[in-house]
Specification:
The chain has 256 residues and is of the alpha+beta class. The chain has 2 domains: 95 residues, Beta Barrel (Thrombin, subunit H); 127 residues, Trypsin-like serine proteases (Thrombin, subunit H), CATH 2.40.10.10. Helix content is 18%, strand content 35%. The chain contains 5 helices and 12 strands. It has a 6-stranded antiparallel barrel with strand order 1-2-3-6-5-4. The chain has a 6-stranded antiparallel barrel with strand order 7-8-9-12-11-10. The longest helix is centred in the first third of the chain and has 16 residues. The protein is globular, with a radius of gyration of 21 Å.
Length: 256
């Protein structure tokens, strides 16, 4: 009897001593308000608003981080086309004008400055502490506005931390991009998760702290680009947040 009581007390002590883990459902209310849609607005377009990806607020809430490839196409100045962010609150959607402050194509990151009141900023973490095997989450707009402007959250296992460089079979296959990657490869997170084109720019965050550790930037596609929607591979990639820190330091040195 004494032995059983000792065992019971030992189990209780172990449970009380175990580190507490935040509930993802409790963390989401602090994440979702800082996540926005990003795209363009053309007054004469049909439709005028074009949601192309995801972004999230940082710093003082007037800046939004997203992916550079979303803004690769030049704006049509003759039609007064502008960059915008889409903010959803209580089923109401507002459109904020945005300016592209900085873009780093090599790491596929972009920084926007938005007009109006500040948004709730997400906290940037330290991606150098990330470990393979962690269960993370990302929040964004997987298929643009087709599902409505309601950000979706998906679980993502951190499958691997790898250099973004694909060796080629022969020297004849080398091109400028491959040579640049080989000279200065940067790390990416390989995620065991299904992401879609609209998820580009989604923050990848830790469920215990809510800190952003990466930015979804691409999906492994088998076959044509359409296959990303019809037959997703279940493998996605994210840029570690340390490259976001570097972008902010270069674009806004006085704020760091």
């Amino acid at each position: 009897m004494v032995s059983k009581l000792r065992t019971s007390w030992a189990l209780i002590i172990l449970v009380l001593a175990a580190p507490a883990h935040a509930d993802v459902a409790d963390m989401l209310p602090s994440i979702k308000p800082g996540v926005v849609g990003v795209g363009t607005f053309n007054p004469t377009g049909r439709p005028p608003a074009n949601l192309q990806g995801t972004g999230f607020a940082v710093l003082d809430g007037h800046y939004v981080v997203s992916c550079a490839h979303i803004f690769a196409k030049p704006l049509d100045s003759e039609k007064n086309e502008t960059y915008v962010v889409f903010v959803a609150r209580d089923r109401q959607v507002s459109v904020r004008t945005a300016v592209l402050v900085a873009s780093d194509k090599s790491s596929d990151l972009a920084l926007l400055k938005i007009a109006g009141d500040p948004l709730p900023a997400l906290k940037l973490g330290d991606s150098s502490h990330a470990r393979e095997g962690w269960q993370l989450y990302f929040t964004g707009y997987p298929i643009g506005s087709i599902l409505g402007l309601n950000p979706s959250t998906h679980r993502a296992g951190l499958a691997a931390i790898i250099p973004i460089f694909t060796p080629v079979a022969a020297a004849s296959q080398l091109n400028a991009r491959a040579i640049k990657q080989a000279a200065s490869p940067y790390e990416v997170f390989e995620l065991d998760a299904v992401a879609y084109p609209g998820n580009s720019g989604s923050p990848v965050w830790h469920p215990d702290t809510g800190e952003v550790l990466g930015v979804v930037n691409s999906v492994y596609v088998k076959g044509s680009k359409e296959a990303a929607l019809t037959a997703p591979s279940g493998i996605s990639y994210a840029i570690p947040v340390k490259y976001v820190h570097r972008l902010l330091e270069r674009a806004l040195p006085k704020t760091q």
